[in-house]
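Two quick folds needed for the group meeting slides. Do the first one here.
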Amino acid sequence: MFLAFAVGYVFGTKTGTDNFAELVQAARAIRESEEFDDFMLAVRDHVAHSLRGVADMIEKVDIGSNAAAEGDLVDRVRQLVSRG
């Protein structure tokens, strides 16, 4: 969000108010385009696939016989990272 604000501020200061309105209109047109929707769908699919892969790796981690730690996601992730 900070990056978007910074980019908007830089463009706004360099282009002036008239050109900034055109820039906002162009960004809105891009956001409402079918290509952008397809791009966002691809990003969501990629993130979902990556998260499923991480979840599968976490499920396979053997955390030993510590009954208190069984099911503790933090311990599983630590174990997974220590193996990496």
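Then this one, please, same format:
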Amino acid sequence: MKISQLSESTGASIRSIRHYEKKNLITASRLENGYRDFDESAVDRIKTIQLYLGLGFTTNQIEEMINCVDTHFKNEIDELCDEALDAYEGKLAEINRQISNLGVVQHRLKKQINQMKQR
């Protein structure tokens, strides 16, 4: 399928699809005219990429997870699930730290606003 069709099927912009290809998250063959030709598996791959992006992972982290699964046999997937769990837990810890830091900033801003209003 052409890149425009893949974009329509997934909701991902053509620019994003090109970026995913550049980051080795998806692959395409080339037609004689030079156009990209994606197979049907690219739809699921992009939906997976979008899921990971929605969870806050970077494309570099996504590349590690996706390409790791692609290169291992089915019986090794359980170990990979443990690695994915570690990545998820690490991401959650990072988000919790960010929330905590934002709470501190929020408190300081409220305090400053109240002081300014009292003047």
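Slide caption for protein two: The chain is about 70% helix and 5% strand.
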